[in-house]
Amino acid sequence: MTEKVSRDHRITFLSGGGTRVAKAGDLPPMKAIRAKCLDCSGGSANEIKLCAVPECPLFPYRLGRHPFRAPRVLTDEQRAAAAERLATARTKTR
């Protein structure tokens, strides 16, 4: 999926034959940051990975993930319940 940011702060998503437009204010913050990084790098996702501007305030967030979020910690009961739900989901027929 390719994203382009226009001057009127709308983001155009091009995927296959369809086009979808969204206002930048309607996007979740991480997707808006990703769209800004795509705009800055000329639309190249590879250039975002190779970004040479570590002074940019968006640099830690450029890959679309929050780098400072604490990992989720589950209790033994929560882990057992999740394993049981997964096992049930795997045995269901479609």
Please write out the topology.
Blueprint: E1 2-5, E2 10-15, E3 18-23, H1 29-40, H2 45-49, H3 76-91
Output the structural class.
Answer: alpha+beta
Number of helices: 3
- Global morphology: elongated
Task: Provide the β-strand percentage band.
Answer: 15-25%
Percent helix: 25-40%
Q: N- to C-terminal separation?
A: 29 Å
Mean pLDDT: 79
Gyration radius, to the nearest Å?
19 Å
Largest sheet: 3 strands, antiparallel
Report on this model:
- The relative contact order is 0.11.
- The longest helix is centred in the last third of the chain and has 16 residues, at 76-91.
- This protein is an alpha+beta fold and 94 residues long.
- A hairpin with a 4-residue loop joins β1 and β2 (10-15).
- The protein has three helices and three strands; from the N terminus they run βββααα.
- The chain has helices spanning 29-40, 45-49, 76-91, and strands at 2-5, 10-15, 18-23.
Main features:
94 residues; alpha+beta; 3 helices; 3 strands
Quick recap of the structure?
With 94 residues, the protein is an alpha+beta fold. It contains three helices and three strands.
